[in-house]
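User: I'm new to structure prediction. If I give you an amino acid sequence, what do you actually give back? Let's try with this one:
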Amino acid sequence: MNQFRIIELYARKLSQEASAEELAELSALMADEDEQLFYSMLDNWWEAGLQKNTPHSEEVDAHFNKIIAEKPNGNKEVPQSVISKLFKPLLVAASLIGVAIISYSLFFNDNNALNTANVPNEIVAKRGTKTKLILPDGTVVWLNSDSKLSYSEKFNEAIREVDLEGEAFFDVVKDKNRPFIVKTSALKIKVLGTAFNVKSYKQDATIEATLVRGLIEVEKTNEPNASKIFLKPNEKLVYNKTVVNELEKKNLPAATTIKPQLIYISSLPTNISDSLRSETSWMYGRLVFEGDSFIELAQKMERWYNVKINIESSSLMNHRFRGAFEKENIEEALQALQLIINFNYTINKNEITITKN
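Assistant: Good question. You get back a string of structure tokens that encode the predicted 3D arrangement of the chain. For your 357 residues, that looks like this:
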């Protein structure tokens, strides 16, 4: 049976990205009775919309799937776990296939659904989109807008290691013999089994790690022999990239700076739900900002709404805002900000220009 190719073509059909040639190929593969049965099972699975149940994240799943369902293009989220139930011989490859299907239905525009050996698996959430995926070890990852996660074909062997650019929430399957490692541009986060959020956008001045459950170990990538930092639940670590950049410009070693300026840890309130925290609210469809300057908020809004924002008045850039956007579109969000400070804006396609009133 051509199950892998059928899954690939079927995913492209569901996401309305299949070419006429690919649709014809899919029809040809369906000619065999066995293939028709397989296709029927896939079709029933899609219509049923079965979901993988994760005991620690049912509420998050519900909110996250609602977000996916409300995307402008109307695509449905593909539940990866059901693939393993289709055919027992596919159990080993089920997670990789699931990632391929989710990638196609949400954001991929190329033809490479299944990666070849020695080529890292790469999942990209474009601006204005979010996605959920399940890694080969069963770890659940929620990937925020404008983010990329990659891992090698050897991920599920001695160690479990992923590279992250952007923001993601991890609910890691516990395995004391195989640590789970998240690598960012400057920090390496090591865990056995836990739930945490990592924010590491290239254009942001900081890298953040927020622990929800369990224990994580953090070290600086370029200083593996330095003391490790351990986070407890409801603690947040912030790594200041601006300080590092200034030290590099002046040719000074990192040890010469005051540690709290480079890395500092804060305790988060325990009486606030994850849906209201700025660090995790994005999974619930809420963009929370707490004291963000206009320029910082603009960066978040660019990722959230898939727009480009130009603030042409320096006097506006340092105004700070507190609040949240949930169901507002970009114009409604800008109008809400206008109630706080006076400014004008123009919208040209997906580019917004903000000027002083």
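You can read the tokens as a compact description of the fold. Here is one thing that stands out. The mean pLDDT is 76.
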